[in-house]
Amino acid sequence: MQRTVKPIRTGEEYIESLRGRNVKVYLFGELIKEPVDHPMIRPSINAVAKTYDLAVEEEDLAFPKSSISGERVNRFLHIAESAHDLVLQNKMQRKLGQLTGTCFQRCVGMDALNSLHSTTFEIDKKHGTKYHERLLEFIKMVQHENLVIGGAMTDVKGDRSLAPHEQEDPDMFVRIVDRDDKGVYISGAKAHQTGCINSHWMLVMPTMRLLEGDKDYAIVGAIPVDAPGITYIYGRQSCDTRSMEPGDIDQGNSEYGGQEAMVIFDRAFIPNELILMDGEYEFASMLVERFTCYHRRSYVCKTGLGDVLTGAAASIADYNGVPKVSHIKDKLIEMTHLNETIYAAGIASSYQAHKMESGVWLNDDVLANVCKHNVTRFPYELARLAQDIAGGIMVTLPSEAEFRNPETGPLLKKYLKGKKGVDVENRMRILRLIENMTMGRNAVGYLTESMHGAGSPQAQRIQIARQMQLGYKKRLAKDLAKVKEDPDETPEHSDYFKRVFKLDNTNE
User: Fold this and answer.
1) How far apart are CA 317 and CA 339, in angstroms?
2) Residue 176: how many CA atoms within 13 Å on its side-chain side?
3) In sequence order, which ranges of 20-74 are alpha helices (DSSP H)?
4) Are 220 and 290 in contact, with CB atoms under 8 Å apart?
5) Does an H or E element contain 354, and which?
């Protein structure tokens, strides 16, 4: 396994750990020599760096002790050992959302490690494999070195009506194309990969339920981000080139940003000791479902961004001189209500967790899906309300260059005044932040990612439908109404209410 010279501790040390790697990244059709120093990429690196600094600044929140390595580790590398651990994940995610105002890119890796902990254990139990042992060794290494782990799950999919092995082009899903006595070679592509270039390692996983004919696609393994045979094509974001312009006002959030890229594998090698699934296709759906269970309640991170956006909306109301106007106050109340509703479902999902056979704890799947379904809707309404409070000037505001120009600058300072005593530049900065979060660069992480990350809204509705226990609820109603009829014997494959009314949640 690739190892760094020494464990990373601070955000600055993390940034330095990314330098000098042989990572093949294309942006605007050009090969980027050093991604760390590229002005469009650097804000996303800064956001990840904040996850290191938080662990130093707030150890109880973000730097727990692991029973696997015996060391204190970054919570993004920690395997949940209790419901409380899952709750603290959510609290950490909200705090980082508040501090960065964007996607900090480490939740996929955290949720992948936790879902693989139970899945590899159960594959080994059925097939006598050694995947769980390999995973634990990998976890020990990354915990000690304090590395960033990315998760590569979403395949490009090709024709959605066809299974992976039925595709005209077999590379529409990542697959094993060759193997030798040392390991396997994979080809294909993963889309929308959050923070992949900013990671040290990737966990490559299947994206959906697989059939017997899909055995070559049932591959899970860990691979260094800079391994030979991997190409990254950087994704565009709205207003992203503002990072390459002089000044920092027009960026809205000049310090932090998100990152998505397409990852292309061309005979990339995974050694045997890092293979965590190899042909056990029947476990692909288990892995995906457990990952999405963790990841959908991880979207409480968006409540941290919602806190920032609400604060920005309240600030611009102050600057405009209307903080006490009734409809403005009502909109800020509504923004808070929607934001806390997201958080409530996510944190409740974590509290209502249960212990898996491997020892890891898994949060409640019904409430995780409710949390994510709220996220597909409510941030859009928060954005609308913030834009309403900000007013039209948010989208017609002249550039910072005009503000700095000796001829136009004084005119803008005269005509862009708000409340007496409010600095015009501060008003511009808040307006740009609202633009950044609702229609600019960080709207990617706050809005579109909220819609499709960890599955589309329909994916959550399907999972909620499976867990509704309508038979149970109909019996409640009929008993109270004294309805006399033969009971419905249709089996229900949900134990949601068993979890709801479970009094002792210390173990299973």
Assistant:
1) 19
2) 23
3) 42-57, 59-62
4) no
5) strand 354-355
> pLDDT band at 507, cuts 50/70/90?
low
- As a whole number of angstroms, the longest Cα–Cα distance in the chain is 85
Q: Which CATH number fits domain 23-284: 3.90.79.10, 3.40.50.720, 1.10.10.60, 2.40.110.10?
A: 2.40.110.10
β-bridge mates for residue 295, sequence order: none
For residue 362, the cross-strand partners are 354
What are the residue numbers of the active site? 103, 107, 194, 260, 295, 299, 301, 449
Phi–psi pair at 177, nearest 5 degrees: -110, -15
What are 19-72's pLDDT values in tens digits?
Answer: 999 999 999 999 999 999 999 999 999 999 999 999 999 999 999 999 999 999
Listing DSSP states for 3-25 in one string gives --SS---SHHHHHHHTTT----E
Q: How far apart are CA 48 and CA 137, in angstroms?
A: 24
Q: Please give the C-alpha separations between residue 403 and each of 4, 48, 118, 315, in angstroms, as whole numbers.
A: 46, 32, 56, 21
Angle between helices 131-145 and 107-127 (to 10 degrees): 150
Distance CA 299, CA 342 (A): 8
Check whether 505 has a pLDDT greater than 90: no
Q: Is 298-465 in the same CATH topology as 23-284?
A: no
- In SS3 terms, 446-486 reads as HHHHHHHCCCCHHHHHHHHHHCCCHHHHHHHHHHHHCCCCC
Between CA 171 and CA 156 the distance in angstroms is 9
The tens digit of pLDDT for each residue in 129-160 reads: 999 999 999 999 999 999 999 999 999 999 99
**Is CATH 1.20.140.10 correct for 298-465?**
yes
What is the structure's pLDDT at 156?
A: 97
> Above pLDDT 90, what percent of the chain?
93
Report which secondary-structure segment, H or E, holds 435. Answer: helix 424-438
Please state the pTM of the whole predicted model. Answer: 0.95
CA distance 324 to 319: 12
The token pair that represents 148 in the structure block: 């960033």
Class of residue 374 by CB neighbours under 10 A (exposed 0-12, middle 13-18, buried 19+): buried
User: Nearest Cα to 199, choosing from 445, 23, 6?
Assistant: 23
Domain segments of the chain as ranges: 23-284, 298-465, 468-500
d(CA 419, CA 427): 10
What letter does residue 300 receive in the DSSP assignment?
G
**Cα torsion at 415, 421, 426, 431 (round to 10°)?**
-60
